[in-house]
Amino acid sequence: MIMSVCLPWLARCRRFLVVTFTFTVLLLGLWGTLPLSLADHGTAIAALEDDRYDGNIFVVYAGNGSLVPPRLNLKESFERELPVILVYYLDDSKDCKQYAFIVSRMQEFYGRVASIIPVSVDGIPDQKRFRRDEPGYYYSGGVPQTVILDKNGKKIFDAQGVLKFEVVDDVLRDLFDLLPRSESVELKQRTYNEFNSELVD
Known about the structure:
single chain, alpha+beta, Glutaredoxin, four-stranded mixed sheet, two-stranded antiparallel sheet, 37% helix
Protein backbone atom coordinates (compact mmCIF):
# COMPACT_ATOMS: atom_id res chain seq x y z
CA MET A 1 0.00 0.00 0.00
CA ILE A 2 2.78 2.41 0.76
CA MET A 3 4.31 1.67 -2.66
CA SER A 4 1.06 2.43 -4.48
CA VAL A 5 0.87 5.81 -2.76
CA CYS A 6 4.56 6.68 -3.13
CA LEU A 7 5.06 5.66 -6.78
CA PRO A 8 2.83 8.36 -8.33
CA TRP A 9 4.37 10.94 -6.01
CA LEU A 10 7.93 9.84 -6.94
CA ALA A 11 7.03 9.97 -10.65
CA ARG A 12 5.75 13.54 -10.24
CA CYS A 13 8.86 14.50 -8.28
CA ARG A 14 11.07 12.93 -10.92
CA ARG A 15 9.29 14.85 -13.69
CA PHE A 16 9.58 18.05 -11.64
CA LEU A 17 13.31 17.48 -11.09
CA VAL A 18 13.94 16.79 -14.80
CA VAL A 19 12.01 19.90 -15.85
CA THR A 20 13.73 22.00 -13.19
CA PHE A 21 17.16 20.67 -14.14
CA THR A 22 16.53 21.28 -17.86
CA PHE A 23 15.25 24.79 -17.19
CA THR A 24 18.26 25.56 -14.98
CA VAL A 25 20.73 24.34 -17.60
CA LEU A 26 18.97 26.34 -20.29
CA LEU A 27 18.86 29.45 -18.13
CA LEU A 28 22.52 29.18 -17.20
CA GLY A 29 23.42 28.64 -20.85
CA LEU A 30 21.54 31.75 -21.88
CA TRP A 31 22.94 33.72 -18.96
CA GLY A 32 26.45 32.82 -20.10
CA THR A 33 25.81 34.29 -23.56
CA LEU A 34 23.76 37.25 -22.38
CA PRO A 35 26.75 39.42 -21.44
CA LEU A 36 28.23 38.79 -24.88
CA SER A 37 25.21 40.24 -26.60
CA LEU A 38 24.70 43.15 -24.22
CA ALA A 39 28.27 44.18 -23.55
CA ASP A 40 30.23 46.42 -25.87
CA HIS A 41 32.93 44.08 -27.15
CA GLY A 42 34.29 46.43 -29.80
CA THR A 43 31.72 48.00 -32.02
CA ALA A 44 31.68 47.35 -35.73
CA ILE A 45 32.71 50.86 -36.68
CA ALA A 46 35.25 51.14 -39.43
CA ALA A 47 37.91 53.78 -38.82
CA LEU A 48 39.87 55.47 -41.56
CA GLU A 49 42.56 56.78 -39.23
CA ASP A 50 43.92 53.57 -37.69
CA ASP A 51 45.78 50.43 -38.68
CA ARG A 52 43.08 47.96 -37.63
CA TYR A 53 41.60 45.38 -39.94
CA ASP A 54 38.02 46.37 -40.79
CA GLY A 55 37.51 44.18 -43.86
CA ASN A 56 38.53 44.62 -47.45
CA ILE A 57 39.50 48.28 -47.87
CA PHE A 58 37.97 48.61 -51.35
CA VAL A 59 34.58 47.41 -50.14
CA VAL A 60 34.60 49.25 -46.78
CA TYR A 61 36.26 52.56 -47.70
CA ALA A 62 35.72 52.94 -51.43
CA GLY A 63 32.34 51.23 -51.64
CA ASN A 64 33.70 49.20 -54.54
CA GLY A 65 33.60 45.42 -54.38
CA SER A 66 34.43 45.06 -58.08
CA LEU A 67 38.15 45.73 -57.64
CA VAL A 68 38.88 42.52 -55.73
CA PRO A 69 39.45 40.00 -57.05
CA PRO A 70 40.73 41.74 -60.18
CA ARG A 71 39.07 41.02 -63.51
CA LEU A 72 42.40 39.90 -65.05
CA ASN A 73 45.67 38.82 -63.51
CA LEU A 74 49.03 40.21 -64.63
CA LYS A 75 49.77 37.41 -67.11
CA GLU A 76 46.34 37.73 -68.76
CA SER A 77 46.77 41.51 -68.99
CA PHE A 78 50.11 41.06 -70.77
CA GLU A 79 48.55 38.53 -73.16
CA ARG A 80 45.81 41.05 -74.05
CA GLU A 81 48.39 43.85 -74.35
CA LEU A 82 46.61 46.04 -71.83
CA PRO A 83 48.32 48.70 -69.73
CA VAL A 84 48.39 47.66 -66.08
CA ILE A 85 47.92 49.59 -62.86
CA LEU A 86 49.25 47.54 -59.95
CA VAL A 87 48.30 48.77 -56.49
CA TYR A 88 49.98 47.03 -53.56
CA TYR A 89 48.05 47.32 -50.30
CA LEU A 90 47.31 45.94 -46.85
CA ASP A 91 43.79 45.86 -45.44
CA ASP A 92 45.06 46.99 -42.03
CA SER A 93 47.00 50.07 -43.14
CA LYS A 94 45.51 53.53 -42.62
CA ASP A 95 47.39 54.84 -45.66
CA CYS A 96 45.94 52.08 -47.82
CA LYS A 97 42.46 52.74 -46.41
CA GLN A 98 42.78 56.39 -47.45
CA TYR A 99 44.13 55.42 -50.86
CA ALA A 100 41.35 52.91 -51.61
CA PHE A 101 39.02 55.61 -52.89
CA ILE A 102 41.66 56.97 -55.27
CA VAL A 103 42.13 53.46 -56.69
CA SER A 104 38.38 53.23 -57.16
CA ARG A 105 38.51 56.52 -59.08
CA MET A 106 41.27 55.10 -61.29
CA GLN A 107 38.92 52.27 -62.13
CA GLU A 108 36.09 54.70 -62.83
CA PHE A 109 38.10 56.64 -65.41
CA TYR A 110 40.50 54.02 -66.77
CA GLY A 111 38.96 50.63 -65.90
CA ARG A 112 37.80 49.93 -69.47
CA VAL A 113 41.17 50.59 -71.11
CA ALA A 114 43.61 49.38 -68.44
CA SER A 115 43.84 46.40 -66.16
CA ILE A 116 43.67 47.55 -62.54
CA ILE A 117 45.11 44.92 -60.23
CA PRO A 118 45.02 45.51 -56.47
CA VAL A 119 47.55 43.18 -54.84
CA SER A 120 47.41 42.38 -51.13
CA VAL A 121 51.05 42.13 -50.10
CA ASP A 122 50.07 39.42 -47.62
CA GLY A 123 49.35 37.25 -50.65
CA ILE A 124 52.77 37.68 -52.28
CA PRO A 125 54.77 34.47 -51.81
CA ASP A 126 57.96 34.71 -49.77
CA GLN A 127 60.51 33.92 -52.46
CA LYS A 128 63.64 35.60 -53.82
CA ARG A 129 62.80 35.74 -57.52
CA PHE A 130 59.66 36.36 -59.49
CA ARG A 131 58.78 36.26 -63.17
CA ARG A 132 57.77 39.48 -64.95
CA ASP A 133 54.15 38.29 -65.03
CA GLU A 134 53.98 37.87 -61.23
CA PRO A 135 53.01 40.81 -59.00
CA GLY A 136 55.91 40.15 -56.62
CA TYR A 137 58.33 41.16 -59.40
CA TYR A 138 57.35 44.86 -59.11
CA TYR A 139 56.82 45.10 -55.34
CA SER A 140 59.43 47.21 -53.55
CA GLY A 141 58.43 46.67 -49.93
CA GLY A 142 56.05 49.48 -48.95
CA VAL A 143 52.32 50.18 -49.07
CA PRO A 144 50.50 51.64 -50.75
CA GLN A 145 52.61 51.30 -53.86
CA THR A 146 51.37 52.13 -57.36
CA VAL A 147 53.07 50.72 -60.44
CA ILE A 148 51.92 51.53 -63.97
CA LEU A 149 53.04 49.37 -66.89
CA ASP A 150 52.42 50.17 -70.53
CA LYS A 151 50.84 47.63 -72.90
CA ASN A 152 54.28 46.12 -73.56
CA GLY A 153 54.91 45.56 -69.85
CA LYS A 154 57.42 48.41 -69.51
CA LYS A 155 57.31 50.15 -66.12
CA ILE A 156 56.50 53.83 -66.63
CA PHE A 157 55.57 54.81 -63.08
CA ASP A 158 56.41 53.52 -59.60
CA ALA A 159 55.60 55.43 -56.41
CA GLN A 160 54.78 54.71 -52.80
CA GLY A 161 52.38 56.50 -50.50
CA VAL A 162 48.95 58.04 -50.72
CA LEU A 163 49.02 59.73 -54.10
CA LYS A 164 46.57 62.31 -55.31
CA PHE A 165 44.39 61.15 -58.18
CA GLU A 166 45.86 63.92 -60.34
CA VAL A 167 49.38 62.49 -60.01
CA VAL A 168 48.32 59.13 -61.40
CA ASP A 169 45.93 60.77 -63.84
CA ASP A 170 48.79 62.77 -65.39
CA VAL A 171 50.75 59.58 -66.03
CA LEU A 172 47.70 57.84 -67.49
CA ARG A 173 46.80 60.84 -69.65
CA ASP A 174 50.28 60.69 -71.12
CA LEU A 175 50.07 56.92 -71.58
CA PHE A 176 46.75 57.13 -73.41
CA ASP A 177 47.71 60.29 -75.32
CA LEU A 178 44.92 62.35 -73.76
CA LEU A 179 44.88 66.12 -73.41
CA PRO A 180 46.88 67.39 -70.45
CA ARG A 181 44.86 68.65 -67.53
CA SER A 182 45.77 72.26 -68.36
CA GLU A 183 43.88 71.91 -71.66
CA SER A 184 41.10 69.78 -70.27
CA VAL A 185 38.47 70.01 -67.57
CA GLU A 186 40.14 70.08 -64.18
CA LEU A 187 38.71 67.64 -61.70
CA LYS A 188 38.43 68.83 -58.12
CA GLN A 189 37.85 66.61 -55.14
CA ARG A 190 34.77 67.18 -53.00
CA THR A 191 34.22 65.15 -49.85
CA TYR A 192 30.70 63.98 -49.12
CA ASN A 193 31.39 61.76 -46.11
CA GLU A 194 34.30 60.61 -43.97
CA PHE A 195 35.32 57.83 -46.33
CA ASN A 196 34.40 58.82 -49.86
CA SER A 197 34.75 61.85 -52.02
CA GLU A 198 33.90 62.55 -55.61
CA LEU A 199 35.59 64.30 -58.48
CA VAL A 200 33.56 67.08 -60.00
CA ASP A 201 33.94 69.81 -62.63
